[in-house]
Amino acid sequence: MNEWFLIIVYVTLKPELLGGERIETGYTPIDISLSLTQFLLSEFVPGAGFVLGLVDIIWGIFGPSQWDAFLVQIEQLINQRIEEFARNQAISRLEGLSNLYQIYAESFREWEADPTNPALREEMRIQFNDMNSALTTAIPLLAVQNYQVPLLSVYVQAANLHLSVLRDVSVFGQRWGFDAATINSRYNDLTRLIGNYTDYAVRWYNTGLERVSGPDSRDWVRYNQFRRELTLTVLDIVALFPNYDSRRYPIRTVSQLTREIYTNPVLENFDGSFRGSAQGIERSIRSPHLMDILNSITIYTDAHRGYYYWSGHQIMASPVGFSGPEFTFPLYGTMGNAAPQQRIVAQLGQGVYRTLSSTFYRRPFNIGINNQQLSVLDGTEFAYGTSSNLPSAVYRKSGTLDSLDEIPPQNNNVPPRQGFSHRLSHVSMRRSGSSSSVSIIRAPKFSWIHRSAEFNNIIASDSITQIPAVKGNKLFNVSVISGPGFTGGDLVSLNSSGNNIQNRGYIEVPIHFPSTSTRYRVRVRYASVTPIHLNVNWGNSSIFSNTVPATATSLGGSTIKSFWLFSKCLCFYIFIRSYSRCSKFLWDCRSDNRQIWIYSSYCNT
């Protein structure tokens, strides 16, 4: 019987157009959620700036129509209409929270400008109590029986607001005049609700995903859209909930989302009506893997009765931090030779942020080898994320099928080449048929990773820096497994075979230290069903070697409550002669014939 472990490692610093630009104001649920995620990733610091930021993004600009759009988005995905009473109740509660929070934010701004004013301190105590009470009452009403899935994205918005308010009192409560017992009680509420809200969101996301799954290709279209859109509107936000813990993350925290999302296979009027099973389409997506850096795509061209199309391609990539040799993936599709192969360089600017594809569909008119149905791609433009006008790369020609329609920018106040939210991370292919088949399908499938997942692992000198384990390399006796939904990416499973060090799984993570002489501390966030022995090394030096306790009796369907934080009261120094030098952390673990799951982060405080 297998048992699993999830370990999360931290290192803590001890202070001593494309033919014309697409610019539009985005107020769809996806636009708003991407803007919120960007804000949480970049501005996660307690204070009036954070409070007013939430007002500017959501709580000060939303009316009933915007809240209704969140409900409609999921209703359409799962084909379930919320009854009028439940709909009106949810929207009225959200409207009430919005009005209250605007008053709270203005009071916060006034208090921060004059923090010793007794009247303003009292006003903040009143406003906090009112806001906390309203949220405590409203959020259960956004979990109406039978409507948990269609209400999920607004539930997460309200949960995020509640956690932010509880963090405020944990950080500023003493200055507002609350006693220590009240502050500690509200902090306990904060840590409890981080777990409750996270587990609720993941549970109902999985329920909804299961509801839209089905056996054929048309079902897969809806399945993939639900997965993509609710990753953006639910899971990405939930993945950042732990950062609200003000005692574990007292300063700015840099997080990264390494999960991938997928635009639909590139076909003419793609609706899933082509032949094929949902399982077959899903198999053409990469299995869980370490993050890598897309360097280039070599595209091959075939032709049928004068119609030229993308027949196959090969990907070249590098490990994170460019810390190893470039590697080539196996051929996707077929190696056509109707035209010279074309190499698209992906590593320009900030990578490819947009594709504009030209699709071609030809219906058969007669019977015979020369009259097949043809569903192919005959050109794509690849646009680079950049602050300058870096020319696009074009395979044969540009088209009108725009990836930004499915994955929009995170900032609509600047050109998309600057405000993009994701970059191209991989290209696979949905392929069926050969030159003698009735139907030929060659449909490239684009995978996208959030722009917060940086090419390097850089430990900032003024922030807590979290680095997922999938940004490591040089694995031994290790596998990558799907994440549980609340980690922002996949997990690394370190396999172990007793005490034999030669059989113990390990992973090496390349790290860049910008400081020439800095003191660091290690923290480990992990989950385990048995005690495990954890080793963390830097180069040939051991940082710590400790046995840490079990955290759960089972990790099947693991929840955020399965994770504990192990803090080793041991600091170490890093001396680096060159800023460009890449140092490496290595950790392994030992337990009797067990597996170890790792989601690793390095923190500076």
UniProtKB/TrEMBL annotation:
Residues 44-245, 253-454, 464-563 form the Pesticidal crystal protein domain. GO terms for biological process: sporulation resulting in formation of a cellular spore; symbiont-mediated killing of host cell. InterPro entries: Galactose-bd-like_sf (IPR008979), Pest_crys (IPR038979), Pest_crys_dom-III (IPR005638), Pest_crys_dom_I (IPR005639), Pest_crys_N_sf (IPR036716), Pest_cryst_cen_dom_sf (IPR036399), Pest_cryst_dom_II (IPR001178). Keywords: Sporulation, Toxin, Virulence. It comes from the Bacteria. One of its GO terms (molecular function) is toxin activity. Pfam families: Endotoxin_C, Endotoxin_M, Endotoxin_N. Belongs to the delta endotoxin family. This is Crystaline entomocidal protoxin. It comes from Bacillus thuringiensis.
